[in-house]
């Protein structure tokens, strides 16, 4: 009867909850070991200037392949690291590795993602300074990406840390703009160097006048505020043409390149220079 069904449904739900908690627990334990055993790596995704067609920056993205070959996506393990506090250790590992590698590619800025809990660590800025010093990297070579969620809750210390980073000469980017609880007041309260337009707008773009209007306004708004605008998730030549026509400064996405390992990135940077270098102003030359 109905009551019986209700009870079954509840126990089914509870069992699932337990599974969920257990797998998260397990993932977190495995992640801790992975960090210790050096099983994490970084992939680097190139970001191109729209007009000049040169690679101006690369975004470091964490990668984890388990011993048995299973790939765990950062969309899965970063939230777990955030919840368990492991994000501080993980994030410092990423920063350190990215800053060390930055010397291999002197022409590009190294962008690193920082999660809210990592960013809110009381000694975060000091740790970044220490990592730059250890790796002898100029602060201008580093960009820190935060998302709007870093502003949730009390955020006076967040603003203070953002200012400190900027005063040190580190670039600061607002990532995934427009995807969360966007508020334009963040843009007024802190002068981000870079605004990354969330790839949802770009995937919605094709022939959709609303999505196109939003992209165009974000570009204009960002420009009026003196920011560098980056469009994320570029997958088609039509998107590139659109962004070039509307003066978007930079773009990142599979059409330009997937995230690459160190060896492939070195090769990509060289090839890209050969194909596009010095071709300033030539339109639509991406192929
Ligand atoms: P994100 O910072 O917005 O990074 C961009 C994500 O979009 C990357 O996914 C990238 O592979 C993907 N992407 C780039 N171009 C395209 C495209 O043309 N089409 C599509 N469909 N996707 C594209 P990934 O590497 O899986 O990372 C997902 C998210 O995980 C990142 O989003 C970032 O929020 C987080 N993440 C990755 N590495 C780190 C890290 O080291 N620290 C922290 N705190 N977060 C990280
Ligand atoms: Mg990012
Ligand atoms: Mg993003
Ligand atoms: Mg994203």
Largest beta sheet: what is the strand line-up? 1-2-4-5-6-7-8-9
Q: Spell out which ligands are present.
A: ligand C2E, magnesium ion
Give the overall shape.
globular
- Helical amount: 40-55%
User: Ranges with pLDDT <50 over ≥5 residues?
Assistant: 278-284
Q: Helices and strands, in N-to-C order?
A: HEEEHHEHHEHEHEHHEHEH
- How far apart are the termini? 64 Å
Q: Treating each run of at least 4 consecutive H or I residues as one helix, how many helices?
A: 11
The total strand number stands at 9
Describe the main β-sheet briefly: 8 strands, mixed, barrel
Average the pLDDT over all residues and give the rounded result. 90
Overall radius of gyration: 21 Å
Main structural class: alpha/beta
Strand % is: 15-25%
Structure, described:
Strands 1-2-4-5-6-7-8-9 form an 8-stranded mixed β-barrel, surrounded by 4 helices. The protein is 49% helix and 18% strand. It is α/β, with parallel strands linked by helices and 287 residues long. Strand 8 (228-232), helix 10 (237-245) and strand 9 (250-252) form a beta-alpha-beta unit. Residues 24-273 form the EAL domain.
Key features of this structure:
globular, 8-stranded mixed barrel, 287 residues, Diguanylate cyclase (GGDEF) domain protein, binds ligand C2E, 49% helix
Condensed summary:
Helix content is 49%, strand content 18%.
Write the layout of secondary structure elements.
Elements: H1 2-36, E1 40-49, E2 55-65, E3 71-72, H2 74-84, H3 87-101, E4 109-113, H4 116-119, H5 124-134, E5 142-147, H6 156-168, E6 171-177, H7 184-189, E7 194-197, H8 199-203, H9 209-224, E8 228-232, H10 237-245, E9 250-252, H11 262-276
Parallel strand pairs: 2-4, 4-5, 5-6, 6-7, 7-8, 8-9
Antiparallel strand pairs: 1-2, 1-9, 2-3
The structure holds ligand C2E and magnesium ion (3 copies).
Residues 175-176, 196, 232 line the site of one magnesium ion.
């Amino acid at each position: 009867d109905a009551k019986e069904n209700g009870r079954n449904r509840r126990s089914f739900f509870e069992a699932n909850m337990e599974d969920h908690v257990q797998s998260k627990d397990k993932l977190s334990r495995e992640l801790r070991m992975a960090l210790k055993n050096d099983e994490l790596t970084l992939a680097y995704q190139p970001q191109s200037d729209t007009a000049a067609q040169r690679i101006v920056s690369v975004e470091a993205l964490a990668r984890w392949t388990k011993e048995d070959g299973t790939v765990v996506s950062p969309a899965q393990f970063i939230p777990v690291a955030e919840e368990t506090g492991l994000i501080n250790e993980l994030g410092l590992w990423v920063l350190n590795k990215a800053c060390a590698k930055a010397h291999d590619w002197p022409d590009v800025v190294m962008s690193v993602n920082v999660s809210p809990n990592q960013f809110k660590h009381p000694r975060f800025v000091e740790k970044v300074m220490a990592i730059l010093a250890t790796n002898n990297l100029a602060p201008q070579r580093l960009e820190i990406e935060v998302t709007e969620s870093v502003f949730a809750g009390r955020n006076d210390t967040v603003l203070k840390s953002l200012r400190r980073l900027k005063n040190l000469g580190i670039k600061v980017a607002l990532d995934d703009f427009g995807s969360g609880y966007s508020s334009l007041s963040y843009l007024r309260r802190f002068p981000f160097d870079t605004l990354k337009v969330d790839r949802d707008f770009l995937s919605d773009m094709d022939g959709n006048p609303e999505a196109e209007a939003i992209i165009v306004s974000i570009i204009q708004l960002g420009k009026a505020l003196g920011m560098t605008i980056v469009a994320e998730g570029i997958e088609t030549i039509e998107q590139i043409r659109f962004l070039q026509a509307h003066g978007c400064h930079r773009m990142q996405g599979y059409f330009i390149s997937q995230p690459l390992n160190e060896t492939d990135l070195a090769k990509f940077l060289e090839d890209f220079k050969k194909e596009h270098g010095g071709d300033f102003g030539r339109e639509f030359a991406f192929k």
